[in-house]
Amino acid sequence: MYQLFRKIFFLFDPEAVHHFAMNYLRILAKIPFGKNILTFFLTPKGKNLKVRFLNMNFRNPVGLGAGFDKNAAYLNELEALGFGFVEIGTVTPLAQAGNEKPRLFRLPKDKALVNRMGFNNDGADVIAERLKNWREKEGRQNKKLPMIIGGNIGKNKVTTNEEAWNDYAICFNKLHPYVDYFAVNVSSPNTPGLRELQEKDSLKKILLNLAMMNNGKAVAKPVLLKIAPDLTPAQLDDVIDLALEIKLDGIIISNTTISREGLITPAEEVEKIGAGGLSGKPVTEKSTAIVKYIFEKTNGQVPIIASGGIFNARDAREKLKAGASLVQVWTGFIYEGPAIVSKICKKLNQ
Ligand SMILES: Cc1cc2nc3c(=O)[nH]c(=O)nc-3n(C[C@H](O)[C@H](O)[C@H](O)COP(=O)(O)O)c2cc1C
After folding, report:
1. In the chain, how many domains are there?
2. Does residue 35 sit within a domain?
3. pLDDT (tens digit, 9 = 90+) per residue, 106-123?
4. What CATH number is attached to the domain comprising 88?
């Protein structure tokens, strides 16, 4: 059924379709019993799916990666689709429009996407308010196993790398009451210079400052670091050393890649698209290899969430086998459709 929808969707601009599809889902969820029907058919059931991770209880191990619901605008709908967790953002202190359109492209032959969105988002104040309202309205305190919310945070384009630590601190403070964990994003390729923050000293400054702020809160929230799949072995070792040194809560592996190696799509088509992060099938193996490397090098001491080219239960299992505790989908959601969580979980539950 989704194959047919996908054929039609793929005739139109990817970003426009993204908004159209989510708004259509919103209408479905709003009609009487709509959300219950979606939940009934799409929310995975199975007692083997629950995961306890960093003191949080996940109803299942399949989450939605950052960048899909940047503004925390579709949480109700995503909950009905069965996600165990959704990472909102990347959120920056001030709202920003992101890069010029078009900025999202499909590479169907490779089951991939290229994006250069550039952290378009409503800003930390508006998003914090939206999360607050959602939590209050949905009466989430009464739910047995609510969907977990991660807050992915970044810096504004106009902020220099020297001042970046402060942008992360602002977002951290504003979102802290309303998210269950944080993802520190220093790995998106679409904000000039952002990935340089993956160098040990810059990272240390950002993460230690967040740790200090976290310790001052009544309840500390886990802070994870999201890394690129393009780090050199030496850079990966630096990340590992730092994670162990400062007792980082976890790592999210990985973001999109800037590499265009091994694509089936003809080079001219790829070149025409231009700069951006590549996601989907071409990053599956790369990100699994990094999960395995970090898991083995740390003897499993650093908790891992895996992201990158997960389309089905086999892909998810590979990531879990390599050492991840949870997985996130993004490009797979576009290619496989809204039943992706229930399909993956059905097989994982067996
Ligand atoms: C259109 C698009 C926007 C994204 N935006 C963000 C973002 O704002 N922050 C972030 O940390 N990752 C972002 N990502 C990366 C995804 O969260 C994910 O880590 C990456 O796409 C690899 O997973 P996938 O192969 O399943 O797509 C984005 C990905 C896509 C395709």
Report:
1. 1
2. no
3. 999 999 999 999 999 999
4. 3.20.20.70
Which residue from 83, 101, 106, 256 has its CB within 8 A of the most atoms of ligand 1, so it is best to mutate? Answer: 256
Checking if the pLDDT of 140 tops 70, the result is no
HSE-up of 166 (CA within 13 Å, CB side)?
7
User: Does the residue 320 lie in any domain?
Assistant: yes
pLDDT (0 to 100) of residue 122 = 98
- Domain of residue 86 covers 55-349
Q: Is the distance from the beta carbon of residue 332 to the nearest atom of ligand 1 less than 6 Å?
A: yes
104-107/56-58 β-pairing: unpaired
pLDDT tens, position by position, 261-310: 999 999 999 999 999 999 999 999 999 999 999 999 999 999 999 999 99
Residue located nearest, by CA, to atom 29 of ligand 1: 67
Distance 64 CA to ligand 1 centre (A): 9
**Residue with the nearest Cα to atom 13 of ligand 1?**
67
The model scores a pTM over 0.90 = yes
Is 86 within the bounds of a domain? yes
**Ligand 1, atom 1: nearest CA belongs to which residue?**
115
pLDDT (mean) for 36-53? 89
Pair of tokens at residue 273:
């698209």
Ligand 1 binding pocket mutation candidate from 96, 186, 279 (most atoms within 8 A of CB): 279
DSSP codes of every residue in 133-190: HHHHHTTGGG-SSPPEEEEEE---TTS-GGGHHHHHHHHHHHHTTT-SEEEEE---TT
